[in-house]
Amino acid sequence: MTEETLPETAERYLVSFAGETGYLNWAALGPLSPAVRAALDSAGEKLASFSPRDHARVQSSSAEAVAALAGLLGARTDEVVLRPSSTDALQHALYGLTGTVIAATSEFPSITLPLQRAADLSEGRLSPRWIDPQDGWVTADAVGAALDASVTALAVSHVDYRTGYRADLAALRELIGPERLLIVDAVQSFGVVEEDWSAADVVVGHGYKWLRAGRGTGFARFSDAARERIAPVLSGITGLAASGPFRGAVPAPAATARAYTTSVPDHLASARLAAALHELHGVGVAEVESRVSENVARMIDMAARHGIRVETPREPQRRAGIVSLVPDDAEALGAALADAGLVLTSRASAVRVAAHAGTSEETLDMLDAALGASGRRSFTGT
Questions:
Q1: Strands 218-222 and 202-206
Q2: d(C-alpha 212, C-alpha 28), whole Å
Q3: Are strands 218-222 and 80-83 parallel, antiparallel or unpaired?
Q4: Distance CA 327, CA 344 (A)
Q5: Which of 19, 119, 222, 346 counts the highest number of beta carbons within 10 A?
Q6: pLDDT tens for residues 234-291?
């Protein structure tokens, strides 16, 4: 993408967010983009036909999605697989491990549940080592305190779903070394931050949030090191070294990431994901990240101006699109913001707002006005 084409493609991308006024819930759900909706309609029409050629065109979207993902991940296509969800991909990664795996107790259940269930079934071959770092931030210091010779992997969210903290993958990789696996849940960051994903051995994501591709668009990258050390215990017919049905002895798993698949991808989901990735490629992740970072910085400044504590880092390199507001009364603040027409997520003691590249001035002004109108005394104790 050249500088000459950037303004046009960026403008086209931003226009695709039309109608988002008041929407600050991208960390929960990204409404389908116009390009994704068009791809879905087209794919549906083709699959409703009786033409094998039309069917093949839709089926080719799976390969297109894999190629696009590989490009963004800096990986080979045979390292990338499509999965129904990020949780599914994490199950493949965690159920096939042995040894000790470090993870924070505050992680989203897509990490903690599969890890515990896998340990429960492992007859002692796999053990979680739970850490409870300050503020839930998985830093190199927090991991280093739990590291010993028994540790074989670290599982971590690239961006914490509660606080918006963005883990330093390079620092974590340097800490654990090449002999241990780094397993990363990138659901809250993929597509909105530029990252050297090669630091991780396993990267999982899902297109239904920031990519605006809908559910069923999960994916994973398994490096060669991951393929060597993670047994493909949940693989199906598409994960075999042989192709198609077989008789007699069960074939060996595939030598590539395909070993971590169970069946043919949902081609309608692939069509949605391919369209979203094509759209992202047109504007570029760097442009998206720049606009997201600017919007997040403005929300953090708003909160400070209205006396509301924020537990999201201020440093751009340590956050993505999430801002976590921590007032004295989160329930009341969340309700007040919702009454003002804002869409967000309230959980326990925090109110989570999340801005995308296409979040409008009108939406940010709505948030600013609602925070001001709510009154500092009600939510900050001042």
A1: antiparallel
A2: 11
A3: antiparallel
A4: 15
A5: 222
A6: 999 999 998 888 999 999 999 999 999 999 999 999 999 999 999 999 999 999 999 9
| CA proximity to 305, closest of 243, 368, 261 | 368
Task: Encode pLDDT of 311-370 as tens digits.
Answer: 999 999 999 999 999 999 999 999 999 999 999 999 889 999 999 999 999 999 999 999
Yes or no: is domain 6-32+284-377 CATH 3.30.470.20? no
For the chain, what are the domain ranges?
6-32+284-377, 42-282
**pTM score, two decimals?**
0.94
- Which residues have a Cβ under 8 Å from the Cβ of 147 and sit 6 or more positions away? 102, 175, 176
Q: What is the pLDDT of residues 16-52, one digit of tens each?
A: 999 999 999 999 999 999 999 999 999 999 999 999 9
Cα–Cα dist 181/199, whole Å = 10
Q: Are 59 and 272 in contact (CB under 8 A)?
A: no
Give Cβ neighbours of residue 18 (< 8 Å, ≥ 6 apart). none
CA angle 10, 11, 13 (to 5 degrees): 65
- What is 33-84 written as a DSSP string? PHHHHHHHHHHHHHHTSS-HHHHHHHHHHHHHHHHHHHHHHT--GGGEEEES
At the top level of CATH, the class of 42-282 is: alpha beta
Report DSSP state, residue 193: B
Give dist(CA 162, CA 108) in Å, integer.
Answer: 9
CB-count exposure of residue 223 (10 Å: 0-12, 13-18, 19+): buried
